[in-house]
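Following up on my earlier thread - several people asked me to post the actual chain instead of describing it. Fair enough. Here it is, all 333 residues.
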Amino acid sequence: MSKQGVFSVSLDFELHWGCLEHKPQLNQSAQNYFHNTRNAIPKMLQIFEKYELHVTWAIVGMLFRKNATDWHQNQPSVLPTFKNPAISAYDWVKKNGFFEEQDLFHFAPELIQKIKSTPNQEIGSHTYAHYFCLEEGQTIEQFKEDIRTAFKVANEIGISISSLVFPRNQYNEEYLAVCRELGITSIRSNPAIWYWQPSDKAGLLTKIFRSGDAFCNIHSAPMVFLDQIQTHIQPIQLPATRLYRPWRPTYSFQNKFKLKRILNEMTRAAQEGGYYHLWWHPHNIGNHPKECLEELNIIASHFVALHKKYDFQSQTMNETTQYLVKKNMQTHN
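Reply from S.P.:
Thanks for posting it. Predicted structure:
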């Protein structure tokens, strides 16, 4: 296979559905956070279009709903039975209700249309209800119905989903079989480092290592090449490389180290023909969108320089999957 490098970006688009545990009450601060997120997404899309970045948006299916009535009338036939109600979207709504019929913190069909109409953007799934696959109480049948509902709501606006990102990157082999059965061809997996492995709970040590790794070389992630990615196991698992951590005002040196780490890793992948996969949540930039967008602009312009110098390619998850499948077929013919 070619040693041409590939740059992949995937975003976990959730709004409040992904923050029910940490922001159960939408106070004014939380509302500002998500309003900033919504306002930043069109600007993010402008950056992606300007620099011709191919991006996968893994979207929580509930964001496709038009309003509260649409949400209530189109629930899955089987709901998850999480032992911990704090992680259930359905329990949250039952307890708190929506802000209004057109709830901007939980529905975003107009933003999804903007993503859909922007060149080189893939719309994938982040499950329908931000479903946690390793949590106690839920079952594989409940997961299957959740994914079916995510597919259905996307199909209603002409979107066919082939890529999936598991919330909290929680998955197991049994659930991968469901994805394969329903037509998912690629998922995002974790870096091959112990503190990024799937778990229903992240301990303090894990959190410390994950956070510190963004700024300094605690553990170098091994370079991944496309010909190392297994294609005979479906769905194909595309390993993430780096989580983009948002700009923070009290992190003067850390902000610089973080950005330098990402740019250096991109350069190495371009030079050596590696696969580099950057990801984040759009709401991560909700506290300081201006500064975060400036950093994303630097990353995007660096990609263009690497593309010109090393022919570094930008691909969505689905594009990388199709490339791998095609190469595999050519190899065995």
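The beta strands are 6-13, 55-59, 121-125, 163-164, 186-189, 236-239, 242-243, 275-280, 313-314. That should answer part of your original question.
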